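Field reference: sequence -> structure
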Amino acid sequence: MQKLFTYNKINNNLKKREALHYIAFMKFWAMILILRWHLYRWKRRRIDYGARMSEFLFVSSGFLVGYNYYKRAMPATYEASFKYAYKHLRAFYPLHIINSICCAIYLNLKFTLTNCEMLIFNFLLVKAWSKYVSYGMGFNGISWFVSVLLFLYFLSPFLLQGIKSIKNSLIIFIFVAISRLGIGLLIKNGAVNFMDINFHRGPIIKAMDFYLGMLVIPLFLRIKESLDIIQNNICVKCFFTIIQLVFPFVIYIIMLKYRFLDRMYFVFIFVVSIFIIGFDYGYISNIIKKKICKEIMSCQMEMYLSHINLNKILVKIMKNNWPKNNELAFFINCIFIFINAYAYKKLLKDKLAIFMDKIVEHFKKIFD
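Structure field:
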């Protein structure tokens, strides 16, 4: 059966760009920090790592979509949008449904109109658009992330039209940056409350963060084209290796020292940071692209979507044997979450995606 909604109109004559391994690693690191924040918050010098890393993930996602599709852009049509969004949806939606149902069961929610509405919002992945926090964060609250991300994937074919040249992308970047700062200042002063835009899960705000990451791609690729010629030079490799080694610590220090800085400023810090670490020339990248590292990092979405439920299960299993040390408890949690997420990815993910294709195909035939 032909794969439903699979986008395959990209020019196959163009060589696929090499993966940016260090950014993939940093996305995995960001996801681990989000898990750490959700499960065991630091007692000292409280920093909202969840919020900071959320910005990092949206900016880096926009950067990678732009990197992969620059001058290979999909047509700016609704058909292309639906196909591209569905390509990503089928990868995580079955697990999203499973986790939502598990959350509803765990919370022992009663069959009421409000709970049914919340569940429908959750299933339809429109929860991030609700102005009611109880709807937006209901059931598997962390799934607001995929609710927004799916919207951004839908927008991607249209957003990609803005990065056809360096000049064009920089003009749009300035406009989006000013708009982002303007809305951020209005939010900070309590003047904006449209569709919950003053909350970090607002799709409009996240669309700006995503697009800012995408818009620097033409300039990035122009510089990368020049650096690729000397990428094997030992001095170049050592220079970017140092950057790769210190980058996580620099970001940590910035978050620690400027923890009260408004999150809109961190968006621009991450745009600059991701632009720099995108030059994947360091020796660390050679380690990250090893098969075992890529396998570990490959299930980050599965770990993210299921970590709340799996933590609850593990707490019940451990009962009174749970370690008092938070770092040790978090490490055990990570291992447990990873094993389950990896097992799902290897054993069920593809099968459930194919099953989802068949269901959608069935309904498509009904309405044709």
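Note: The CA atoms of residues 110 and 264 lie 39 Å apart.
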